[in-house]
Structure formats: structure tokens, C-alpha cells
């Protein structure tokens, strides 16, 4: 909800001829902290108590959302203040995913992990459907500031859930990978593990290229305002369309994941499907066709995401999970944010539809290159 509101706010604060580039800048200001703190946050998740670390990040999220609300309610017209707060939110958020994802295997038995990750994906995607849709309704009917205010309150639910957790299994420190302090050596160990494991490395590369070239969400305000003419409420539904498909795909994966044997091939075809959906989105000039294409992309990405997460979690020792996820942040969070900048630049030079269409084609080409380079991925089985 907050990310949708930030993009909408930026689109209103700049001149029409600078809109595409300004929206792309949102991705740039968010990716710099993510890349800068990814290794540090991964080591922190392997050194400190993961639950307590998440408590700190959630309280930080409350503070950033509250400041965005104040800026919006005050009617501040400077887009740079929004950029600074978006960067601050990304800094706080950089320390959350390693702790969050590394905590999941500590809450369920190993044999239940694939289903737990699928259910976790369903919950996250349902929130992604409700958030942008609700954000669009709030923007259209009240004030933009209330979107940020509701988001600030929502963090308290996560804080409550973390406080209520009891008897969380402790991290396995029996392996030689366990660390008690934050150091360069610990960071290097994480990098060495990831880049020497072909399966983990290739899933990260697929994630990066797919989201870098097919990151079309940042241009949705342009499609909603200037191409499809559907306003703030339509923008909210378009923003949520990807998550609608993702929820469908995630729910389907819950009963199916334990039956999928050739997980590598399913992952590859899911990414190909994602690229094709992006191409169709770039060609569409109908609201419902665009919604369908975005939902199709979301479903494909959900299948890919579930398999990627399962592969990484099962192939990584507990004491290295935080660092693996921290490194992966550069790919799965850096890809979309840099992709937003790339999409904005291409749209600024040509048009928004051309930016989306060319990105989908580039995604397909990059996927073919990664698959050709990594035969282990093609042959990976349950």
C-alpha cells in the first residue's frame, strides 16, 4: 500500500514530461540502501536473535510510515523529501528479509518447509492484493496521507505476532559456518557459499533478470492516467492485479509442491511465462486485458518464487541462511528497483508501452542465457 502511494505521490509532484523519469528514480533511491546493506543485514540475521531483529525493523517501519503521513498531510510539494523517506524506508527494510525468511525454517519441521513456504507466499500475496486496492480507494476518496497512516498502524500487528511467539527453535550452530560477530570474514563466507552453488546462483540470476527487465509496476501511474484513463481507483486495481494472480498461483502450489519432481524445469517455464505475460501487457490497450496480463505475470512469478525459495532454504545450512538471503536481496529486491529506473529511462526516451514490451523480450533472452549456462538447473529434481 505504501509503495503504491509513493509512486502516485511522486507522479503528482513533477511535471508531465518528467513523470516517467521521476517514477524510475523511486527505484534508484530504494535500491542503493538495499545493495549497500545486504551483506551486513545477512550477517546480522546469522549473529543476532532473528525474532528480536525483526522487532527492531518493524518499529523502524512504523517511524518511516508516520513521517510519510506527516509530509503528505502537510502538503509538502518537494519530491526530494519523498525520495529521502523512501530511501530511509528501504534502509530499514534491508534488515528485515534476512531475519524474516531465515526465521521460517526455525518454526516448522524440515519436511513441512515446502508447504510452509507456500502458505507464507499465499499470505504475503493476499496482503499485496488488499494493500494497493485499499490504497487506491483511500487516495481516491480521502487524502493520500491516510494511506501512510494506515500502513504505520499495520506494522503493529507484526510486532504483536512477534511478541506472542514462544519456544522458537534456536539456530543450529554446530556447523563451522556459525558466527558470533559481524565481520568481513563472515560476509566473504556467505558470498563464497552462494557463488559456488550452481543451483542457488542460477535461481538468483533468474530472479534478477526477470524482475530487472520486466519491472513494469513503476509505470502503472502512466498507464492508469494517460493510456487507459481509469484514475486512482483503476490504478489501485491494476497495481493489485499482479498480486491477484500471485495469490492464485501460490494457493495452487500448496497442494502441488510435494508432487512436483522436476522442479528446475518448472521454474524455468514459470519465468518464461512471466516474460510472455509482460510482452502481452506492453501490447495491451484495454483495462481488462492489461489486468489479465498483470495477473498472469503474478501467477507465473508465484510459481517461480515458491520453487526458488524452497531450493534455497533446503540447500543452505541454518547458520548461513541469513547471509544467503542477504546476498539474494541484491537480486530479488535490487532487480525490481533497478528495473524501475531502467523502465523509467526507456519510457522517457520512447514510450511506456515500448518500455514494457522491450523488457519482456529482454527477460526471455536473459532466461535462455542462464538456462544454457547452468545445466544443473535444468536437471534439478525434488
Relative strand content: under 5%
Characterize the main sheet. Answer: none
- End-to-end separation: 36 Å
Helices and strands: which structural class? Answer: mainly alpha
The number of helical runs is 17
Number of strands: 0
Order of helices and strands: HHHHHHHHHHHHHHHHH
CATH uppermost class: Mainly Alpha
CATH topology: Growth Hormone, Chain: A
Helix content: over 70%
Please characterize this protein's 3D structure.
- The chain has 382 residues and is mainly α.
- Helices cover 80% and strands 0% of the residues.
- It has a single domain, classed as Growth Hormone, Chain: A, CATH 1.20.1250.20.
- The protein has helices spanning 2-13, 19-47, 50-73, 79-94, 96-103, 113-141, 144-164, 184-195, 198-213, 220-227, 231-256, 263-283, 287-314, 321-332, 334-349, 352-373, 375-378.
- The longest helix is centred in the N-terminal third of the chain and has 29 residues, at 19-47.
- The model has no long low-confidence stretch (mean pLDDT 83).
Descriptive keywords:
80% helix; single chain; mainly alpha; 17 helices; globular; Growth Hormone, Chain: A; 382 residues
Q: What is the topological layout?
A:
Blueprint: H1 2-13, H2 19-47, H3 50-73, H4 79-94, H5 96-103, H6 113-141, H7 144-164, H8 184-195, H9 198-213, H10 220-227, H11 231-256, H12 263-283, H13 287-314, H14 321-332, H15 334-349, H16 352-373, H17 375-378
Helix pairs in contact: 1-2, 1-6, 2-4, 2-5, 2-14, 2-15, 3-4, 3-5, 3-7, 5-14, 6-7, 6-11, 6-13, 9-13, 9-14, 9-15, 9-16, 10-11, 11-13, 12-13, 12-16, 15-16
